[in-house]
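Hi R.,

Here's the chain you asked about this morning:
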Amino acid sequence: MSLAASEFILNTNGSIYHLNLLPENIADTIIVVGDPDRVNRVTTHFDSVEFKVRKREFHTQTGFYKGKRISVVSTGIGTDNIDIVFNELDALVNIDFETRSLKEELQSLDIVRIGTTGSIQKDIPVDSFLMTEKAVGFDALLHFYDSKSIQDLTFAKKLMEHLEWPPQKSYPYAVDCNSELAERMASEEVFKGITGTNVGFYGPQGRILRLPLQDPQLNQRLESFSWNGKRITNLEMETSGIYGLSKLLGHRAVSMNAVIANRAGGTFSKDPKEVVERLIKYCLDKLVAQ
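And the predicted structure, written out as tokens:
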């Protein structure tokens, strides 16, 4: 069945609508970053770059690192952008652009997020690395898809009870990372934990500037939650969407976080660019390791 022009949208040059990419422009291994300028910071380590394109906040470069072809794509901030980027990345490998129909043989991508985060646990310090084993989404994105089969429903229920979660807020969902890719990216220097993906940076993450919060104790409640020996370790704004859509679409994803703030201790990295740079190099070397 051919997909309608209003659903599968292509530009006049045949590229996918938002990312402005053709299928041949991306590799099987993709690094996603939030900041469009961080794309250059990743590809500066490449041996060569064969392709570049930028449209709005979506910046893509594809090239080679130690002989491995890798694409780096910026998503911008938030799971609303993740919905755009991951659906379009999937379309690039699993939809025939000529016939506008789904391919019979589907392809899986390896996707690594390199992002920044704030720890809510005192023992996870600034300037450290953290891998997200499970992501909790407070954003509702996954509820727009038929997704119960990939959600940890028991975990979400227990978390809601602990947080005394008000019904007017979206129902949290929980999704695990891809275990094989996580094992590949892990090491003793990397913390592991459960990431809370928020719908904003200020109020939704418990920050108070001028506006009062519905629940001023939210971060403390998150910090004290424990289920089967696991705890909420950090807050950011993309990972739940990455894990949810990747699992639904059949891709492998893991989120690697540079901890630049410790909310429990009220501290912030003195050189956040340095810790991000170290994480970039760490992830690149892990991706090419045999």
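The first helix runs from residue 38 to 43.

Let me know if you need anything else.
M.
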